[in-house]
Design goal:
Helix content: 25-40%
CATH topology of the largest domain: UDP-N-acetylmuramoyl-L-alanine:D-glutamate ligase
Distance between the termini: 58 Å
Strand content: 15-25%
Strand order of the largest sheet: 8-7-9-6-10-11-12
Shape: globular
Radius of gyration: 22 Å
CATH superfamily of the largest domain: Mur-like, catalytic domain
Structural class: alpha/beta
Low-confidence stretches: none
Largest sheet: 7 strands, mixed
Number of helices: 14
Number of strands: 21
CATH class of the largest domain: Alpha Beta
C-alpha cells in the first residue's frame, strides 16, 4: 500500500526529522508530535510538516486519522503508554520504529554505514560530503546531526550510495545490512537497554555479521568485538598507529587547532591533507571517512581522484554541535560539543589542550540520562578532570524517570578539580560573572539552547 501521509511520534529527534524531511521531499503529507518545540521542529513546520506539542489524540489532524492511508513512525525514546501511540495502536494503524523505516529506505541501495558508541556523526557526515564532492552521483545520506555543508541532516542526490549513521540504541542498527561499514567504538553505553557491556559488544558483532557478502568492515584498531563474518574484507584504521591499514602520519600543526597530515591507505599515501574543522580528534574521523569512501569506491570499481578527496576534506565545515566554535580570540574562546560519553569528553578535552596550550579550560557538562550517570559517573569525573574547572548542571532525563540519589553531584564528588553546580537557566549569567578563558559546553540534552546567550554574554564581557 502506498501511504498518502506519515505521522511521526518524536518528530523532533535528529534521526526522525531526517526521515520526515525525506517524505516531505517525496510529496507525502507529514505530521507529528514532540514533547517540546525546538529550532529543528520549527524548521520542519516551515518545510510543511504539521506538528504539535501536546500528547493528545484529539490534536491529530484529520489527514492522519485513517489507517488505510497513514503510516505511523515512532522512536523508542517515546514512552510505550504515550496517548497518541495508544490511539494509533488501538485503531489498527501500521506502526513502525524509526529503525525499521530506515531499513526500508536503504533497500536496493549501496549502504555505507558508520556504527559506534561515539564518533558516528562527524564520520558519517564527512563520508556523505566525500560522496557528494568526489562521485558523479553523490547518493543520499541520513545523518545524526545538522551538516554545515549541506545545511540539513538529510542529503538527497542521484545514484545508489546511501550513507547512514547506524545507531546502536535499542539495537536499531540491526535493521541495516551494509555493503561497507565502519565501527568506531563499542564502549559500555545504553546499559539501560543492554544490561552489560558484553551485550553491547555482542550487538556490534551481530551488526558486523550483517555486512553483505563481498562487502567490507573497517574496524578501529583496538575495538574489542568479535568478527564472525568470513565473507567480507577486513581493514583497520587508527589515528596514527602505523600497524593500521588506514592511519594518519606526519601530523603538523598549522595553528588555531588545524593540522596538515598524510593519510596512509593500502593503495599508498594521500599526502598533505587538511580539514576545514579544527581538532586532532577530527583527524581520526577523517581517516575513518576516507577509509569508508575509498573502500566503497574500490569495491564498486569506480575511479578515484585524490585531488578531489583532498579538496573535499579542506572544504568540510563539520556538524552543528560537534566542536562548534562560537568565539575564538586571544581574549576568549567558546566552543560547544555534543559529547555525552566519557570517551567523547576525554577526546574533546585532549584536543582542546592541543588547540589552546597553556590556557585555562572551563568545562560545562549537562549529564544525559539518569542511568548513564549512575553507570559511568566515575568515568565522567575522570574525563572532566582534564579541564581546569568544571560546572555541572542537572541531569537531562530524556526518556527516563528520575532515579533516587542519582544526581550531577555524583560526578562532582569524584572530580579532582574545582567544580560547582548551577541551573541551566542561569548558566550564561554564571559564566559571565566568572573569570574565564576557554569555555566549552558539553551534553546531548537541551544545553544547546543556552549557546547563543552564552556566546552573546561572553562577547559583551570581552568587548568582542
Amino acid at each position: 500500500m502506498e501511504y498518502k501521509s506519515v505521522y511521526f511520534l518524536g518528530i523532533g529527534g535528529i534521526g526522525m526529522s531526517a526521515i520526515a524531511r525525506y517524505f516531505l521531499h517525496e510529496g507525502v503529507r507529514v505530521g507529528g508530535y514532540d514533547l517540546t518545540e525546538t529550532q529543528l521542529t520549527r524548521q520542519l513546520t516551515t518545510e510543511g510538516a504539521d506538528i504539535h506539542y501536546a500528547d493528545d489524540p484529539d490534536r491529530i489532524d484529520e489527514a492522519f486519522r485513517h489507517p488505510d492511508h497513514t503510516l505511523v513512525v515512532y522512536t523508542p525514546a517515546v514512552p510505550h503508554d504515550l496517548k497518541e501511540l495508544v490511539f494509533f495502536r488501538e485503531n489498527g494503524f501500521t506502526i513502525e520504529k524509526r529503525s525499521e523505516m530506515l531499513g526500508h529506505l536503504s533497500e536496493g541501495k549501496f549502504v555505507m554505514a558508520v556504527a559506534g558508541t561515539h564518533g558516528k556523526t562527524t564520520t558519517t557526515t564527512l563520508t556523505a560530503w566525500l560522496n557528494a564532492c568526489c562521485c558523479p552521483e553523490g547518493g543520499c545520506a541520513f545523518l545524526g546531526g545538522i551538516s554545515k555543508n549541506f545545511g540539513s541532516n538529510l542529503v538527497l542526490g542521484e545514484g545508489d550510495r546511501f550513507a547512514v549513521e547506524a545507531d546502536e540504541f535499542d539495537r536499531s542498527f540491526l535493521r541495516l545490512h551494509p555493503d561497507v561499514a565502519v565501527v568506531t567504538s563499542a564502549d559500555a553505553d545504553h546499559l539501560d537497554i543492554y544490561g552489560t557491556h558484553e551485550a553491547v559488544k555482542e550487538a556490534f558483532s551481530q551488526f558486523i555479521g550483517q555486512i553483505r557478502p563481498g562487502g567490507a568492515l573497517i574496524l578501529k584498531k583496538g575495538v574489542d568485538v568479535a568478527v564472525e563474518n568470513p565473507s567480507i574484507h577486513r581493514f583497520s584504521y587508527a589515528l596514527s598507529d602505523p600497524q593500521a591499514d588506514f592511519h594518519a602520519e606526519n601530523i603538523r600543526p598549522m595553528g588555531n587547532g588545524h593540522f596538515l597530515f598524510d593519510i596512509v591507505t593500502p593503495e599508498g599515501p594521500l599526502a598533505d591533507c587538511t580539514l576545514g574543522i579544527p581538532g586532532e580528534v577530527n583527524i581520526e574521523n577523517a581517516v575513518a571517512a576516507v577509509a569508508l569512501f575509498r573502500t566503497a569506491t574500490t569495491l564498486r570499481e569506480e575511479p578515484m581522484d585524490n585531488e578531489k578527496i583532498r579538496d573535499a576534506l579542506a572544504r568540510f565545515s563539520g556538524v552543528r554541535r560537534r566542536f562548534e566554535l562560537y568565539i575564538n580570540t586571544p581574549e576568549s574562546v567558546y566552543m560547544d560539543d555534543y559529547a555525552h560519553h566519557p570517551r567523547e569528553l576525554s577526546a574533546a578535552l585532549a584536543s582542546l589542550r592541543g588547540m589552546f596550550p597553556g590556557r585555562k579550560i572551563t568545562a560545562v557538562f549537562q549529564p544525559h540520562l539518569y542511568t548513564r550517570t549512575r553507570d559511568l559517573y566515575k568515568e565522567f569525573a575522570a574525563a572532566l578532570s582534564m579541564a581546569d574547572r568544571v560546572i555541572l548542571i542537572p541531569i537531562y532525563p530524556a526518556r527516563e524517570e528520575p532515579i533516587p540519589s542519582v544526581t550531577s553531584e555524583m560526578i562532582g564528588n569524584e572530580l579532582t578539580v574545582p567544580w560547582s553546580l548551577t541551573e541551566r537557566d542561569t548558566l550564561a549569567d554564571t559564566l559571565a560573572a566568572m573569570d574565564t578563558d576557554v569555555v566549552v559546553t558539553f551534553g546531548a540534552g537541551n544545553i544547546e539552547n543556552c549557546c547563543p546567550q552564552i556566546a552573546a554574554r561572553l562577547r559583551e564581557k570581552y568587548g568582542l
